[in-house]
Amino acid sequence: MAQLTLPQLERHLYAAADILRGKMDAAQYQDYIFGMLFLKRASDQFDVAQAALVKKLVTEGKSQEQAERISEARGAYKAHEFYVPQESRWSTIVGKSRTEPAEALNVALAQLENHNHQALDGVLSYISFTESRGGNTKLTKPVIQQLIDHFSEYRLSNEDFEFPDLLGYAYEYLIGEFADEGGKKGGQFYTPRSVIRMMNQLVKPQSGMSVYDPCCGSAGMLILAKEYVQDHGGDESHLSVYGQEDNGSAWAMARMNLLMHGVADGVIHHGDTLADPQHVQGGQLQRFDRILTNPPFAQNYRRAGMKFAERMGYGWTPESGKKADLMFIQHVLAVLEADGIAASVMPHGVLFRGGEEQKIRRQIIEEGRLEAVIGIGPNVFYGTGIPACILVLRGRDGAPEGRRDGVLFINADREVTAGRTQNLLEAQHAEKIVSAYESWNEIPGFARVVKISELAQNDYNLNIRRYVDNTPAPEPQDVRAHLYGGVPRSEIAARKAQFDAFGIDPEGALFRLRDGDPEYVDFLSEGYEATAARIPGLAQEREVVLGRAFHTWWREHREQLAKLPVHRQKSQTRKELLTTFVAALKPVGVLDSNQLAGAAAAWWFDAKNDLDVLMAKNFKGLIDGWVRSIASAFEEPSAKADAKTKARYRAAMRKAREHRLVPELIPAYVKQLETAEALVAKLDAEVKAGSPPKKTAKAGQGDEGGEDEEDLDLSQVLPPKQLAALKKRQRESKLELALIKASFVTELSEAAKNLTPAQAQEVVLRFLNADLYARMTRFVTADLRALVIAFRKWGEKYAVTMEHLDQEREASAKRLRGYLEALGYA
User: Fold this and answer.
1) Which of 185, 178, 270, 191 is closest to 224 using CA atoms?
2) Distance between CA 544 and CA 541 in Å, rounded?
3) pTM (2 d.p.)
4) How is residue 217 annotated by DSSP?
5) Which positions of the chain have pLDDT values less than 50?
6) Are 737 and 684 a contacting pair, CB within 8 Å?
7) How are strands ordered across the β-sheet holding 511-513?
């Protein structure tokens, strides 16, 4: 059986949700999907382990019957390995699915938890396929049977995945999709992964450390901390992860998420972190090296009965009024190691609210526990459109030397990419923020270190705009230029860096000198619009230089990627490529360090899964996986699928057919397909034009709702015999097109099969090259567009002077007088 690719598995899991979508919302049905996925995964992996044990025992001399009997005992497996009892095996569930499927699933979940108590205590018991969800919503027997049948389509053991952590990535994908569907409910326990990756870049967890999230949701912070360690060459298995979550469903999701990622030793407790923190050692709160968290915003809390109340040594916020934010911060500070670092997402209110919160801020700042305040743009987080901030906090030892007499403020609320429903904090934005944090220098309009004495003068108000105002400067308006024309040279000088980046001398190429007026220049006689249209051409030479530098760098470093399946040093390769990319291209001057680092980091992240496959399966194996993913998109949806689901399947088919591998491997087939599609479209149009118009009203009903026959255009209508012949050609062309489409997967698979290893390597490296180049040129295009817009604004402001307006007014008045005279009114 061919191994599953990530796109295949993602589509498979999302299709499972299609079965429940519409019957209840995502926040309700996700538990069923995750529970069934966990059961199927555990059963399939156990089947493989059991078969291997039986084979081993027979090799050692046991009979087949003896080996099978021994393999059924819990003691035959290591304590940390999952043991799946007979009641929890998928074959048992399938066998009972036509009688009592809900009960079979409930028993399977309970027995799996009972036999793996240490790993699963309480994780699966909250899921019930017999209880109603969301009011009166209850899964019917046919729906549950359909779910079981769907999950039976693929085996989910490690042997069935094209790279080891494929199921973990798919699980994270599903969590993200549910958060997207669930809106505010779904996003309550989900922080955008781009934000978490940036937070990891700020605190830099390392192998051997402990990482904690007191409000861990689905455990994304903890999982991506391990990813960070792995990406930077550390052993992620030596990073200890801890968390606590109050919501039962999210807590169970977090436990399953860690297990799906192969993290069996994560310690996730269930409970209210403020009321009852549960990570305790020797009667004292456990301390951690790194803390990453996104506590729920604007919560109330209860002081009475709170355990370890000494955590709140800085003070108590009001219990009502939804002001528990700084209580979470105090908990973080209380459990942070003396030399530890924490990063916490917070609402902006904690920065400036008065009363007890102001007193708490003052003490935190005076003790050197607050290192940085980073403003994040609006509409980045699920469930809220308001902007948020990230507080970087330090343990009792405080910040390192050189950072102790101030707080760094970073105003990054403009560092987002607008999305359809949410804004995105992308790699280039993260690179700019992290670079500013690490450099600890002032960047006008972006970052500033504010002395504690200044904060004290402002009553410890941490409103970011008070210290770093990134409001764009108002568009300059030169009155003299408006009256008499010309462009102020001072405005041109202010954009010198933009022009220099593209090697353009504006006064020599875009303007002409103004006689007797050294402070101003004139537009060229061709008009400012024509000049603006020439700017991309003027920038082309510098873009060519950048392109040459890129291709030179690629030739020098592509071998690192080419040999990745051999040396398997992914983290070292990442570091070398990202570092040398910036070093090689920055001197050209077109893009800055943040843009280049962001382009390279985003490119690497986008390619990450393909690189995992590459290391496991080599270049040809990666292409084979692409082919399987494309082929799987052509599977037909269930006959019971609704219109929305069918539309998504059609969109997936179109996307798969447009995969860049298709024209690369079968260009002749693509041309044949396009020719056939064009012919069908042409014949459809001719048949429509040549057919008699359909009557819109029945005879004898008058003219209402229809047209008189004499008003109809019958000039294009073909004679019946000719129309019949045209329709026959139309049917034949559609049949031919259907046959061509049917051979798509076969043609592609055959072409991939015939690739040599060297050809496969060349195809993959060419794609990787194109991806990085496209990432880079996206910044170039945006910067060039901004330059053209700036030039056009000068034209809109100053090309038409007051003198021109007066002349036009006088000309218009003269024309009006002429009209009046001609009419005899003057």
Assistant:
1) 191
2) 5
3) 0.87
4) T
5) 184-187, 697, 699-700, 702, 704-707
6) no
7) 487-488, 520-523, 511-513
